[in-house]
Amino acid sequence: MRCHIVPPHMLERIAREADDPAIRGRARRTLALTSAQFAERRTAAAAAPSPSEDFVPKRTINDAGHLETLPGRTVRAEGAPATGDATADRAYDWLGATFDFFEAVYRRDSIDGAGLPMISTVHYGAGYDNAFWNGEQMVYGDGDGVLFTDFTGPLDVTGHELVHGVTQYAANLEYYGQSGALNESVSDVFGSLVKQWHLGHGADQADWLIGEGLLASGVNGVALRSMKEPGTAYDDPQLGKDPQPAHMDHYVDTYRDNGGVHINSGIPNRAFFLAATAIGGNAWQKAGLIWYDTLTAGSLAADVDFAGFAAATVTAATARYGAGSAEAEAVSRAWTGVGVSLGANETQ
Q: What percent of the chain has pLDDT over 70?
């Protein structure tokens, strides 16, 4: 599974509308690489190895040297000193922060729950405007410096992409339509929670933005997505306007972007925001635990739709906190608040 942080609709707009021909060319190249990577996509998750008792990260940072060959030259291994390359060292630190979050909050040992080594490649391509999880490792572009900055910058970008790996091992949600939008949303949820935990921000303090700081100076926008207010993250002549809906009334039926996985993820994103802020406190605790229980219960169908996932979160909240509990009620209201009925898995 290969999942990218920058959605194709944004890159397509850049390829058409960017002022600088070089930026338009980079966007086309990024789209071409993205298409090639999806063509190779594996849909089956690998079998998890035997559980490890020692929760210690096993990080390796590689440098692609601005080529498009993976994994590149190893520049830092676990426990080695900083390289002096800020990009490589940030990648190392953010892998560690994500590992620490899942260990401390959910007692999960790395991406697969069994100590999987965490591998990243930095300096991928020339001005590559994306970051992705390819089913085995993280890959970061440096950005073009005009529309996007270094993709190792925001912690939640790393968290988002690594959680695609968590989903791959825990539920292997199909990357198309509503299950694909849920796959993207789960990565946004836990990417945001990694950042909130790292900063010590409660639900009422969090910015609920994905990729804050990734848009370069001069771009009219604050992030790639807003979980609090989907559709408001950017509105720029070169990027276009954020197309995410916040409610099922505005669900986007499209064949593009694997059935709109980066667009319609705004609906479950908003549902999590509503649940987390209604429950209050630190969002990674109760609300995050409910979503984590749902993801890892082993009961989700690979093609689960929004209604099926919503019902599963209410079931998880009820199992944790009791029928009629404030937590279960908050989760139920959150889904109805975005127009999702709490039914069983339905045909998308």
A: 85
Instruction: Please report the DSSP string for 241-306 in residue order.
Output: E----SSGGG----SHHHHHTTTTTHHHHHHHHHHHHHH-S-TTTHHHHHHHHHHHSS---TT--H
Q: What is the pLDDT of residues 57-84, one digit of tens each?
A: 999 999 999 999 999 999 999 999 999 9
73's tokens: 């030259």
Q: How far apart are CA 176 and CA 303, in angstroms?
A: 8
Per-residue pLDDT band at 27 (split at 50, 70, 90): low
Among 54-58, 74-78, 196-200, 318-322, the least confident range = 54-58
- What Cα–Cα distance (Å) separates residue 189 from each residue in 105, 157, 160, 210, 348? 14, 11, 8, 9, 22
Peptide bond connecting 71 to the previous residue in cis, omega within 30 degrees of 0 = yes
Residue boundaries of the structural domains of the chain = 3-170, 177-337
For 80-148, where are the E strands, in sequence order? 118-122, 131-133, 138-140
pLDDT band at 277 (very low <50, low <70, confident <90, very high): very high
Fold of the CATH domain 3-170: Elastase; domain 1 (3.10.170)
Q: Which residues are catalytic?
A: 161, 262
Q: Are 6 and 26 in contact (CB under 8 A)?
A: no
pLDDT at 345: 40
Predicted TM-score (pTM) of the model is 0.86
Question: In angstroms, what CA-CA distances link 25 with 4, 13, 145, 212, 237?
Answer: 19, 12, 14, 25, 17
Long-range contacts of 319-326 (CB under 8 A, 24+ apart): 319/293, 320/286, 320/289, 320/290, 320/293, 321/286, 326/279
Q: For 149-177, b where at least 16 C-beta lie within 10 A, e where not — what string? A: bbbbbbbbbbbbbbbbbbbbbbbbbbbbb
Mean pLDDT of 304-328: 97
Q: Is CATH 1.10.390.10 what the domain over 177-337 is classified as, yes or no?
A: yes
